């Protein structure tokens, strides 16, 4: 029990450190992005706002005009101290503490939203909205339960996402990327089909010409077999026929004489 208590105490120390919390949220955010998107579809620690040195943790590269890119800024936030104080108030059943801690959490979330809006949103270089990533599902659920989602969208153009909703968003974007890639390649496919059609037309012409030549050759053969054969038969009409056996003997004798000569 003592070891467990020490471990819990160490965890609280870690989570109470603002910098450490930020790193944890950023690592979780990066893990989800890297699992779903390719390296070409996002950037890390990028400046999205002109005349600013502020770098957003991640920015998804959305297709823009003239094959350019538009950034969708994404920043992880984790107000662990305010959230865990609220959780403790819920566990204690203290209504006053719940109201007070809830108000503090709402203020922190709104402050984060304003910070993201002012630092990273810069249309047309970026989308006109950004995403605040909350690394704990229960924290995201608390923000949604308090009705902050609509307020943040309306006031600061910030969308809230937990791990599950953010993964679903990225999967939807990935499907959009694939559809767009197919649309871009559709013109190439159309050109290939056009070339095939042209080649097939030429091939058809060659086949027609070959068919005509074959028909002409067949007609000449029919003429040769028919007309010439009838002429030969007329000239041989007055010559007496002999039996097949006698014909073989005569032809064999003729062949032998030719070989001797």
Automatic annotation (TrEMBL):
One of its GO terms (biological process) is DNA recombination. Pfam families: RmuC. Keywords: Coiled coil, DNA recombination. This is DNA recombination protein RmuC. The lineage of its organism: unclassified sequences, metagenomes, ecological metagenomes.
């Amino acid at each position: 029990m003592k070891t467990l208590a020490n471990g819990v105490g160490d965890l609280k120390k870690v989570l109470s450190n603002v910098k450490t919390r930020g790193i944890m949220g950023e690592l979780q955010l990066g893990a989800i992005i890297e699992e779903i998107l390719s390296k070409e579809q996002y950037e890390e620690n990028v400046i999205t706002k002109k005349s600013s040195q502020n770098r957003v943790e991640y920015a998804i590269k959305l297709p823009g005009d003239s094959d350019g890119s538009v950034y969708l800024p994404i920043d992880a936030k984790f107000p662990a101290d305010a959230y865990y104080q609220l959780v403790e108030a819920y566990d204690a059943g203290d209504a006053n503490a719940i109201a007070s801690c809830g108000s503090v959490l709402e203020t922190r979330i709104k402050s984060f939203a304003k910070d993201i809006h002012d630092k990273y949103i810069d249309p047309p270089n970026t989308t006109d909205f950004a995403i605040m990533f909350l690394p704990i599902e229960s924290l995201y659920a608390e923000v949604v339960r308090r009705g902050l989602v609509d307020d943040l969208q309306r006031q600061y153009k910030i969308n809230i996402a937990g791990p599950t909703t953010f993964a679903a968003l990225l999967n939807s974007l990935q499907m959009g990327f694939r559809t767009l890639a197919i649309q871009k390649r559709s013109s190439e496919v159309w050109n290939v089909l056009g070339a095939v059609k042209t080649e097939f037309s030429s091939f058809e012409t060659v086949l027609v010409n070959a068919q005509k030549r074959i028909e002409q050759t067949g007609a000449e053969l029919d003429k040769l077999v028919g007309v010439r054969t009838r002429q030969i038969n007329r000239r041989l009409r007055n010559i007496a026929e002999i039996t097949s056996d006698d014909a073989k003997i005569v032809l064999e004798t003729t062949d032998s004489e030719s070989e001797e000569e």
